[in-house]
Amino acid sequence: MKKSKPRKAKRAAVKRRARPATPRVVIVGFGRLGGAIAIGLDQAGWDVSAFPRSGDAVRRAASFRIRLADHDDLRLADLCVLAVPDGAVAQVTEQLEDDLGPDTALVHLSGALPLATFAKARTARAFGSFHPLVAVSDPRDELSGHSVAVASTSRELKGQLMAMAAALGLEPIEVPETGRAAYHAGAVLSAGLVVSLADAGVSALEHAGLDRTAALHALLPLMRSALRGMESRGLEKGLTGPVVRGDVGVVQSHLEALPPELGSLYRLLSRRALRLTATLPAETRLALERLLM
Ligand SMILES: NC(=O)c1ccc[n+]([C@@H]2O[C@H](COP(=O)([O-])OP(=O)(O)OC[C@H]3O[C@@H](n4cnc5c(N)ncnc54)[C@H](OP(=O)(O)O)[C@@H]3O)[C@@H](O)[C@H]2O)c1
Predict the structure, then answer these.
(1) How far is the CA of 20 from the CAs of 3, 28, 29, 108, 166, in angstroms?
(2) Residue 108, number of CB atoms within 10 A of its CB
(3) Closest ligand 1 atom to Cα of 191
(4) CA 167 to chain CA centroid, nearest Å
(5) pLDDT at 19
(6) 135 alpha carbon – ligand 1 mean position (Å)
(7) Closest atom of ligand 1 to CA, residue 36
(8) How far is the C-alpha of 104 from the C-alpha of 121, rounded, in Å?
(9) Domains in the chain: boundaries
(10) What is the mean pLDDT of each run of 10 residues along the chain (293 residues)?
(11) Using a 6 Å CB cutoff, which residues line ligand 1?
């Protein structure tokens, strides 16, 4: 019995010094995505605190019961996540560097910025990027079930970012650093610019005499059904409409009815639809190609 006491004390001391099972995270900025990540990690039981800028952001973090970071949190964090606009990443890095511990990794959430954004950092530490492919317009939005592009300058940080993805229910993908701008353009085409496309659809219905609100109400379920078709059957088999049916007369009537700006967009997207359609007779394809030039 006498001998076991010091061993117990030793084990307790080792336990106190041991790194926590999950990385300690400070989120800088409590906006849309920073808020959603903080809430998600908190719910997953991670040690997460927020470092907001304005009084409004402090109140937002408090309303979700997210702890505010103090100097010790910044110094002891494993990951410091910069949830600020892309244009502020370099400046916030510069402002925070001296407050962070030497082993704290800096991670941005931008899809467009390469890791070279951190090239001007004064301190040697790991740098990373964690870009969820999800449109977050409120911190309460669900992250789980989406993909996330992960990049890092160190193997240890990559493991931590993979663990963060798993905790948030995100599926990690890797994007070559040289392809970041094209990757992010694809993401924008598939999210924000789908809203622009919906606006074009709404305008066509307004042109037909419908009210704007009623038009959006009618088109949203239609858009969802198109997404469902694509999700279950892929791009080629999920495609519907007059191009895939080879309905040349219908396409012609659409082009005659639409105002010029909408007509140009319709032509551009229909040419894309024609590329996805392999089964049309040669003369129908030629007629559509001529019409859509
Ligand atoms: N939202 C999305 O769907 C989404 C998806 C993928 C990636 N991202 C990326 O996530 C990052 C954040 O985007 P977001 O949409 O979450 O932006 P956001 O909602 O506008 O939030 C940005 C936050 O940064 C703070 N901030 C702004 N300038 C700052 C500065 N100079 N110093 C410190 N804090 C500053 C703001 O503080 P105040 O509240 O005090 O003004 C705000 O809380 C961006 O890199 C973006 O590309 C966003």
Answers:
(1) 28, 21, 24, 23, 17
(2) 27
(3) 3
(4) 16
(5) 59
(6) 13
(7) 16
(8) 13
(9) 10-178, 190-291
(10) 45 50 96 98 97 95 96 96 96 94 96 91 92 96 97 96 98 94 96 96 98 98 97 96 97 98 98 96 97 97
(11) 29-34, 52-54, 56-57, 83-86, 88, 91-92, 109-111, 131-132, 135-136
Residue 164 in tokens? 């963060």
Find the 177 Cα to ligand 1 centroid distance in Å.
22
- For ligand 1, the distance from its centroid to the CA atom of residue 200, given in whole angstroms, is 28
In the CATH scheme, what is the code of domain 190-291? 1.10.1040
* Equal fold, 10-178 vs 190-291: no
Q: In this predicted structure, what is the pLDDT of residue 123?
A: 84
Burial status of residue 280 (CB atoms within 10 A of its CB: 0-12, 13-18, 19 or more): middle
Task: Kindly state the tokens that stand for 234.
Answer: 């892929």
Q: Give the ligand 1 atom nearest the CA of 60.
A: 39
pLDDT tens profile 31-60: 999 999 999 999 999 999 999 999 999 999
Q: Convert 7-40 to b/e letters by CB count within 10 Å (16 or more is b).
A: eeeeeeeeeeeeeeebbbbbbbbbbbbbbbbbbb
| The pairing of beta strand 25-28 with beta strand 48-51 | parallel
Q: Which residues are CB-neighbours of 235 under 8 A, at least 6 positions away?
A: 276
Architecture, CATH, for domain 10-178: 3-Layer(aba) Sandwich (3.40)
CA–chain centroid gap for 168, Å, is: 13
Residues in a beta bridge with 281: none
State both tokens at 87.
Answer: 């244009």
Question: Going by CA atoms, what residue is nearest to atom 32 of ligand 1?
Answer: 92
Distance in Å, CA 163 to ligand 1 centroid: 22
